[in-house]
Amino acid sequence: MTVDRKALSRAVLMLWSSDSTGKPDDIFSNDYLNHQEPDAAGDLSDNTLKDYLAIIDGYRKGFSQSEVRFLMQIEEDDLVATRWTIKGVNDGEYLGRAPTGKTVEWTGVQIDRFHDDKIAESWVDWDKYRFMNTLGVI
Fold first, then answer.
1. What's the pLDDT at 8?
2. Contact 110, 81 (CB under 8 A)
């Protein structure tokens, strides 16, 4: 039986949600690599699974009431592309900045590559400008 790749791609993004119950071991390969373009710290990055989970943890500590919505998914060969929106309230410290109390919503696209029914690699392109502008950082 083959895995539902679109469901696994949604499960990755649900890790950003405040009510996430996802288990990374069920989703990612051991050698998972996540490419952020841009990353929140201000650069491009290639992250191991441990690094990527730390990024999610840092976000979830800084933002409550986080919700993920799925706008579109396309699957082709070993790739799944997902367009999404994430919304959360900045009520905790994030990237060394004090909470703003503002609700932030932004969109992005994540493309996941599968190997042996798990996600082996992801490319993430998100609207960092909208995110940082809403927070008042830029």
1. 96
2. yes
Burial of 114: CB neighbours in 10 Å, binned 0-12, 13-18, 19+: buried
d(CA 48, CA 59): 17
Task: Put the strands of the sheet holding 63-76 in their side by side order.
Answer: 45-48, 28-36, 118-126, 103-115, 79-90, 63-76
- The residue ranges of the chain whose pLDDT is under 70 are 1
